[in-house]
Structure formats: C-alpha cells, structure tokens
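--- STAGE predict ---
source: upstream dedup step, 1 unique chain passed
mode: sequence only
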Amino acid sequence: MGKWPIEFVLVTVGYILAYTLTLGFVYPLQKIIFPENALLASLLFLPHGIRAISFFLFGIRAAIYLLPAHYLMWYISVHGADIGMDFFSPLVSVLGCLIGYLVFLSIKNVLPTNILEKGWISIVIIIVLSALFNSFGLSRLHFSIYDFNQLISYFLGDVLGGFICLIFAMYLWRILKNTKFR
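--- STAGE serialize ---
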C-alpha cells in the first residue's frame, strides 16, 4: 500500500492541531493584546510550521497532503462565520508554500553544504520563502491593491508561527527519541 497514507494522516493531524491551537489560544490572546487589530492574519500562525516541515520531509507530495486539511479547517472556521476569507485562500496558501519550496530547491545547490547538513536551517529557509509567497498571494487575493500592512502581517505571522512550531517539533522529536518504549 505504501507510506503515503501515513504521511497524509501525519500532515493532516499536525495541521489540524496547529490550526486549532492558533484559533483557540493564539488568536484570542492576540485579540486581548491588540483589541483594535482587525486583521485577517494571525500574528503567530502555527500551521505554517507544519506546512514548511511537510515540504521538507515529503517534498512536492506535501501540497497534496496539505490541501484537504486546509479546506477542512477553512470550512470549519470560516464557512458561514462571516469571516472575509475567500474560498480560494487554502489553495493560494498551498501554492504559495509550494512556490517557496521550489525556490528553495533551486537555490539549495548554491548554499554551503554545512548549512544544508542541519535540517532545521533548511526548514527555516523554507519557512521564510514560503511565507513570502504566501503573504503576496493572500494579500493579493483578499485586497484589490497590495495592502502593505496585511502583507507584513501575513508574512510575520507565518514566519513567527513557523519558528515556534519548528522549535516545538524539535523538542518533541528530542523527547520522543530519548524515550524508550518497551
């Protein structure tokens, strides 16, 4: 049967957990700290870390794994809730991250090999590149003219959320690696 069903489930569950944590904890906290902030973008979007890690681990297949989770969470959190997110937002996000990953693949040959030996540095590069393309795509989709504040909000939310998610994943991996299951 192959390993793709396990990869698909891991990516889907990871994305749903990160999105739920963002929607249930980060966003309410953001509204308390910045009550006047009516942005569409979370200033700490944890699912972006799942997207970057997925592309790092599974390559282009990650786009196929991520799209259903994106639309599921879009349907649960946006559909019928009078939130101004377009139906194509999940597709634009996945395509923006895919483009960021493809740019990473094209520039990784010119990067020093000692940088690429550390997987977390590659993931950080993917986080930043995919956040860049995601922020351009989403700000263009939601606003007729590029709104610089929204673009920066998307970018910073993705980058900061990606970093936090990566740090959490690294610590979780270390704990699981050092735990003996017998």
